[in-house]
Amino acid sequence: MGESVKPGVLDRLRARYGWFDHLMRAYERFDEGDGGFLAAGLTYYTIFALFPVLMVGFSVFGFVLARNPRLLGTIDDYIRSQVAGPLATELQSLINSAIDARTSVGVIGLLTAVWVGLGWMSSLRHALTQIWWEHRIDSPGFLRTKFSDLLAMVGTFAVSVVTIALTALAHAAPTTAIRRWLGLPASSISEWVFRGIPIVVSVLVAWLLFTWMIARLPREKVSLANSVRAGLMAAVGYEIFKQLASIYLQKVLHSPAGVTFGPVLGVMVFAYVTSYLVLFCTAWAATAPSARADPRLHPVAPPPPVIIAPRRQLDEGLGGRGKLGAAVWGAAGAMALSRLARAANRRRP
Questions:
Q1: Sign of torsion, CA 243 245 246 247?
Q2: Residue 332: how many CB atoms within 10 A of its CB?
């Protein structure tokens, strides 16, 4: 008898700890679904979508300045006081061109943003669907797919605006005034508590956004309960990454090279890590025990093909023994019939 194969370290850990086995199954689903490749594609669409968004922002800035001459005068005075020489003239001409071209730039930027946004939304929904489901989902048609992507993009934009507004309110809240209004004494503990409030609010609003993405953007219905847990996991990881990224930017932006390339690399890394995190948490939700019991998430193998192979058999007729037997049986039958005929004739009167 052969020796039994001893399980490896990972196999023993997976058999002992259920959470570790779930984590490994999530990574396997993420890897089998090409999660890293999909995250890179989402990063490309995210960076590409920044240009039309900047165009729309440039147009909005022009409209605001055109309708507020006092603000425009304040900006001109600030530029003259802080910048001297040809650079001040160039900045003022840039502002004037933003005001003059606000309509054309806004229309072009808005149309381009819708076009790029549909591509980004289609890629995001395809990535989430591929991670959730192990088999291919048939497309309902080009027009229905684009219309569905448009509704999903509008919904995601609305949820994003709500989350950004809540985060901004949490960070802009005067924590010192609130502490004094509540009558709390100034201490290191209260300072840490009030500094942690914006972080908690950021986690909560990110939880809302990621749950929406994981549960509602796939092209087929998925488990909401698993999506809520995966959204919380993504929100916590996202907040940790934001804190680390802020430390990175503070260190990098002190050098000339960091000022030039740091923001660009930061945006690319930020987009990739966020996409990677959302897709991995989706894989975690898709491999939860309750999701594994859902037969819709597992592919059903098609039945094997039916092979029709007609058999051809050559009939050689009766052999020698067959012919002899047929002759004997024929003679016996003829004799029996003749006897029956004679007996019938004798019985007639």
A1: positive
A2: 10
3-state SS, residue 199:
helix
Q: Does residue 153 contact residue 180 with C-beta atoms inside 8 Å?
A: no
CA dist., res. 9 & res. 28, Å (int): 17
Question: What is the signed CA dihedral for 185, 188, 191, 192, rounded to 10 degrees?
Answer: -140
Give the residue carrying structure tokens 């994003």.
160
Q: State both tokens at 209.
A: 């956004």
DSSP 102-129: HHHHHHHHHHHHHHHHHHHHHHHHHHHH
**pTM as predicted:** 0.69
With b meaning 16 or more CB within 10 Å and e meaning fewer, what string describes 124-148?
bbbbbbbbbbeeeeeeeeeeeeeeb
pLDDT tens per residue across all 349 residues of the chain: 445 567 778 778 878 888 888 888 889 889 888 888 999 988 888 888 877 877 777 777 777 777 777 776 777 776 666 666 666 677 667 777 767 777 787 788 788 888 888 888 888 888 888 888 765 666 667 777 778 888 888 877 777 777 777 666 666 655 555 556 565 665 556 566 666 777 788 888 889 889 988 888 888 777 788 889 999 999 999 888 888 877 776 766 666 666 666 667 777 888 898 899 999 999 998 888 766 555 555 555 566 777 776 666 665 655 666 667 667 777 777 777 777 767 666 665 5
